Amino acid sequence: MSILIKNLNKVYPNGNRALKDINLEIPAGMFGLLGPNGAGKSTLMRILVALLEPSSGEVSVFGYNLLKKRKEVRRILGYLPQDFRFFAGYRTHEFLDYAARLSGMTGARKRKQAVDAMLENVGLFDARERYANKLSGGMKRRLGIAQALIHNPKVIVVDEPTSGLDPEERIKFRNLLSEVSGNDAIIILSTHIVGDISSTCKRMALMNSGEISFVGAPEEMLRRAEGKVWRIRVSGDELTEIGNRYPVISTIPSGMSWDVQVVADEVEGYDAEPCPPNLEHAYVYYMENNLNLWTED
Amino acid sequence: MIEFIRNIRHVSKYESKLLFRSWFFRIFAVLAIAVITVFDIAAVLQTGINMSKFIVIPSNIPYSNMLLLNTAQAIIAIFLASDFLKRDKKLDTSEIFYVRPLSNAEYVFGKIWGNLRIFFILNLIVFAISITASTASEDAVIDWGAYVFYFLTVSIPTLVYIIGLSVVLMLIFRNQAVTFVLLLGYIGATVFYLSDKFYYLFDYMAYFLPLMKSTVVGFPNLEEIAVHRSIYLFAGLTCIFATVPLFGRLPNSTKGHYIWITVSLCTFSVCIGAGYRHVGRILRQNENRLSYIQINNKYVHTPKMTVEQYGISLKQDRETFASETRMTGTALSTSQVFTFCLNPGLKIDAVKSGDRTLDFKRDRQILLVDFGREIHAGDTVSLSVTYGGRLDNSFCYLDIPEKELNERNTADIFSIDKQYSFQTESYMLLTPETYWYPRPGTGYSDESPDWQQTYFSRFSLNVTPLPGLVPVSQGEGTDSGDGSYMFRPEYPAQAISLAAGKYRRKSFVRDSIRYSVWHIEGNDGFYATALDSIRDTIPAIVQEMKEDIERRYRFDYPFKRFSIVEVPVQFSCYPRAWSLAQETVQPETVFFPERGFGFYQMYVKKMIVYMQKWQREDDIKDLQMQALRNAVWTFANPSLDRYFIFPQLFNFRYNIYSADWPVANRLVEAYMQNSLEENNRWKRREEGISDSEKASILLGQYAFKDLLADAEHRDLIHNIVGLKAFQLFAPAELNIGVGAFRDSLYSTVGKHTFRNIRLENLLDTLGRMSKTDILSGLTAWNDPVKLPVYSIREPEVVNVNDRGADFFTVNTVISNHSDYDGIVHVAMNVEGADYGDPKTGRKIMIPARRSVRLVSVWDNTPVFMNINTMISGNLPMLVNIPLNTDIRREVRPLSEKDEDTVLPEDWSDSVPDEVTVDNEDSLLFTVSQKPVTGLLPKLLDRANDSRFKYAGFRWWNPPLQWTATTDDRYYGKYIRSACVVRSVRNEGGNKTATWKIPVPSPGQYELYFYMTVYDEIKNHWQNKDFEYRFRVAYGDETEDAYISLSKAKDGWERLGVYYFASDTVSVTLSNECRARFVIADAVKIVKR
Predict the structure, then answer these.
(1) pLDDT tens per residue, range B86-107
(2) Chain Cα centroid distance, residue A150
(3) What is the rounded average pLDDT for all residues in chain B?
């Protein structure tokens, strides 16, 4: 049971080519879709949840052709859009109940139990009578995931779920997603925050400018960045020059000088010491290289 | 399907929740409920005298509630319905619902149903309030069916349509503001402009559609209502179904769209079909009418007979009747084939003469009976016609213009259907206009007045109504015991009517006349119980009023019965050109709207309460008697012409006819009623000139003959005929005196009871009696009247002391400045004078180009002089001059000077070196006119009647443009008029009126302005000193002048003294004034 995307293209009426020949297989489990803003992630997500029609290509979700069997696909779908701030005047539990009803949960008692359990699950039970648009940003996100999960969907698409959340909320949110991924569901997590993926996803894809530039396990990406991350100690004067020559990941002051982490195949003219990469390093390295390649092409 | 409905319910539930939580809706709902609650309480408590309309017909409470609520909800629904699309667009959380498996149709329908549902709940709440209010009132009855009916026919189609339309427009324009403005414009256009045009086609709110329910017959126009409302219900459904494919969300399946497009097309077809049927029905009726008229024209000159005896037997069926009518007639000309007319809806089965079946031919309404042998003029024959069916109402009132027929019939906010007959299971009403039995000749012809020959016949009517129904007709109905009733009126009648319903009679006999009220079972609560304690006095009061009206019109009541018969509220009729009698009045019968609808004086019970409050009178019997008099006065009041019983005294007994002048009867009626319009100041202020003056102007422009056929001036026909009657008889009145002439007219007419009188013969007789050639007056009717114009000198009153005895002489001069002789009517109001004194009212001939000095001598102080210039170029027609203000005293013997004398036209005693310029002088008087711009100012500035030069004005909303208006208080040689404009406060104003006065010779002059100070200005609540501002320009000089409105008096007010060396002086009045309006009338200069 997976999602198969073949030769997927999306050209907006204004001529913007948001997706270029995307081919992707997304298996069960948590799948991260990483990429900078404007890479086409949201377009891809919106096509996957049948909010947007692709210009060409095919998408099969659990064997259902998305273009022809939208109803079946929508039945097994949970979606948390990127922007999730402005609500109609519903109370928290009403919002969830409405979502549940529309997903086909018909039995009133069962639905009420599910809503209460879900509110409990996302830590909103105490806020159940509050109006959804009066909740804090984190609570809204949690309500968002609750509505996406209320009907036990097989495919859960979450678009930039942690942007704008404080670190604590972000961790809570990731954990919540991880819990769900215990089932056989596919969870697609689109984000530009590397940390979201590194801690949760077994597989990931990297998107840039409407194309998939990498598909695989996060470890695979890490491996590619091994030996490409350097720590250099420089003086204040040299800091600017380093910034011009290499992508700088972090700059930490150390007495009169600075400890700078850069990503590069090799560092010349400085006393550079290799360090073990994390996914963020790998992402930067990958983006830099791809971008370079792209420019060279 | 279950899932489909379930999803719609889910969406609607939450949509309703949102709507209910929106402050916009809450405020609207609270306001609507509050307004309607207040309204209902006011209605059931009858807080206003005219509120009886809301309560006497039980369904009027839900009807009025529904109209009020519907107008408001139709506007609010636009906003709320378009709001969900805007909300979906604005809220980023909407997408989480879009990704659910429900279809677009389910989502959209759910949203719309959610909106509708909340409005329906509001409807129910409003109904609950009105039901509660009704239960609290002792007189309000709850008509449960009406609540359901109005909800189904008014609320549902309106909401479905407007919500559907706003959603579709929102999807097309994708902008709520644009949609809202467009729809508000649309609503504005339907309410204020299209309103009832095109037979209510654009009336989506059912605001104008006739929807009043009768307690007797319910809705006679049920089919029309159903068809009309279907138009909007299905138009709304079309929009709603079209919303599905237009909705921006990707559909569950691509084929889903096609289904809804197909369904939408289907509902659209039904909508168009209903619209076509609605308009088609009326167009067909109009076509039918034209065809009926043409057919009448075709047969109008074919041989006819008069019918002396009618024997009608009629058996009522559920929605039809079957009848056999036996007639004995006399041929008017020799022929084998004779023409009769019968309602084209009725089918003729057989025509017989004795046992012999006669051949007949039917051409729609026309029945041509072939007697198989020559019948000679004057020969008498018998025949019987067997026929039956359902009457075609479109055959009625062929003489009434289509526009007037299709005009809305209203009472306050209610629209009432117009029916001319009824044939239902529970009720039947047949009036002569329907031609429910064969009548000789044809119906209305617009080519020849020959159609209109009326004859008196003896009738006998045998009616078998449906079980439980009681028939009412002319004559006393006697129950034969077999379910049939026999009527035999004792007098010959021109036609008879028949009503059958669940009638009950309340009656008494007084002075051998039986007075009855035939009310529908259960409808007597409004008339009867309140008068219980004066039950014994009622006959005396009624008789007193009967005698009063007999005295007033000098005719005695000719019938043995007088019945007021309750008829459904939809029963309608029109005034005719040829008679004052309308179908509501029949011999011995008045058909009156059920429960006295529209006549608060009939709600006797409540009237007593009101009067008690107003008069602080506790004598209940006295109040009851007053209330009864008020109620009975309804039938004696000439201004309520539809129910005024004058036709009972005159028309049903006498018939004056003329082969050339179908208006003959009406002419004599108008003269007998003495109905020349009074000088009604309020009406003049409203309309600028009176109806009689309009009539006089028209008579100067068009021939009387043409005016009679002119649909555009139908509303003035009464005044036109009235003036013409006065003109016709004026020479005779002049010759032998008004009183003597009237006596001879009454005595001549009185000799022809229940017989026809030929107009020409009547005039000939009257001419001989009055030694006047009245008959030749008729020949002048083919041309417009040559209008004389008169100037009237201010009367002079002198208290003459002749050898110790005091007399008062009134002296005035009326000059005829035209080439045509004219007659004026001068009436005097003198303290203690006997109204029988011929001097108090007399006609005076003013020969062409001559003046007449009128002198009259009185023992007591004269108070007023009224000069009615009749058909003339003078405006106002009636000038009312107060006489007791400035009385000179002389000690001298009364002399010959104190008698009328004819003087030359230019006898003038006017002062030399005095020049007056009036606003009527188009060369010397000008106003600055800028066109009114802007829709609202134009709408507010609309004159009521644009056919005439003069218009009325309202002091609280004066015209934006200089508007000419008339009043006998204004200055004018022939036309006492002035120009009025709304004032402004900015310096210099924005409108001016300028008089250019020629200066006869250089010198010192006094300058005067003619003032008319209205009470509204004089008694202004702020009591500020307002002033008129003038600029006087002469030579190179310019000076400002003022007149203070609080100090000014009516008449000439001095502006100042000037030395004029130039040949012209110009006086300009600006509209800068703190009073609401400025009047520009006349200025004059007087040399010192």
Answers:
(1) 777 777 788 888 889 888 999 9
(2) 20
(3) 88
Residues of A in contact with B11 (CB under 8 A): 102
pLDDT of residue B523: 83
**Is residue A189 assigned to a domain?**
yes
Residue of B nearest to A99 (CA): B97
pLDDT in tens, B793-852: 888 899 999 888 888 888 899 999 999 999 998 888 888 766 556 667 788 889 999 889
Of the candidates B6, B11, B92, the beta carbon closest to that of A81 is on B92
Alpha helices in B515-663 (DSSP H): 538-553, 604-615, 620-633, 646-649
- pLDDT digit string, tens, across residues B249-268: 888 887 878 889 999 999 99
What residues contact residue B882 under an 8 Å CB cut-off, 6+ apart? B863, B864
Q: Which residues of A fall within a CB distance of 8 Å from B21?
A: 89
Q: Taking residues B517-537, what's their average pLDDT?
A: 78
Domain B790-904's class? mainly beta
Tell me whether residue B815 is exposed, middle or buried, using C-beta atoms within 10 angstroms of its C-beta: 0 to 12, 13 to 18, 19 or more: buried
CB A73 within 8 A of CB A64: yes
The topology under which CATH files domain B914-1087 is Jelly Rolls (2.60.120)
Answer yes or no: are the C-beta atoms of B543 and B562 closer than 8 Å: no
Sign of CA pseudo-dihedral B390, B394, B397, B399: negative
CATH T-level fold of B300-501: Immunoglobulin-like (2.60.40)
User: Which of A166, A198, A215 is the C-terminal boundary of a domain?
Assistant: A215
Instruction: Kindly report the nearest CA distance between residue B316 and chain A, in angstroms.
Output: 60
Longest dimension (CA), chain A: 71
Report d(CA B16, CA B80) in Å as an integer: 11
| B269 Cβ contact list (under 8 Å, min separation 6) | none
What is the rounded average pLDDT of the residues B176-194? 87
CB spacing of B250 vs A70 below 8 angstroms: yes
Same domain, A70 and A157: yes
Hey, is the C-beta of A147 within 8 angstroms of any chain B C-beta?
Answer: yes
Task: Verify that A285 and A234 share a domain, yes or no.
Answer: yes
> How far apart are alpha carbons B147 and B149 in whole angstroms?
5
For B792: left if phi > 0, alpha if psi spans -120 to 50, otherwise beta; the answer is beta
CATH number of the domain enclosing A37: 3.40.50.300
Please indicate whether the domains covering B300-501 and B914-1087 agree at the CATH topology level: no
At B223, list the tokens: 């089919």
Residue B569 has pLDDT above 90, yes or no: yes
Average pLDDT over residues B713-720: 84
Domain that includes residue A267, residue range = 223-296
Q: Tokens representing B566? A: 């309750």
**Pair A207, A41: CB distance under 8 Å:** yes
CA distance A117 to chain B (A): 20
Q: How far is CA B785 from the centre of its chain?
A: 27
Query: Chains A, B: CB contacts under 8 A, how many?
Result: 87
> Across B266-364, where does the E strand assignment appear?
305-316, 321-331, 335-341, 346-353, 356-357, 359-363
- Asked whether residue A36 is assigned to any structural domain, the reply reads yes
Average pLDDT value for residue range B270-295: 93
- In this prediction, residue B358 has a pLDDT band, given cuts at 50, 70 and 90, of very high
Which residue ranges make up each domain of chain B?
2-277, 300-501, 653-782, 790-904, 914-1087
B114 contact residues in A (CB cutoff 8 A)? none
pLDDT over 80 (residue A16): yes
User: Using one digit for the tens of pLDDT, what is the confidence trace for B911-926?
Assistant: 677 899 999 998 899 9
Q: Does the distance separating the beta carbons of B250 and A148 come in below 8 Å?
A: no
The answer as to whether A238 is a domain residue is: yes
- B966 close to B875: Cβ distance less than 8 angstroms: yes
Contact B14 A94 (CB under 8 A): yes
Q: Provide the domain count of chain A.
A: 3
Q: Beta partners for A52?
A: none
- Asked if residue A82 is part of any domain, the answer here is no
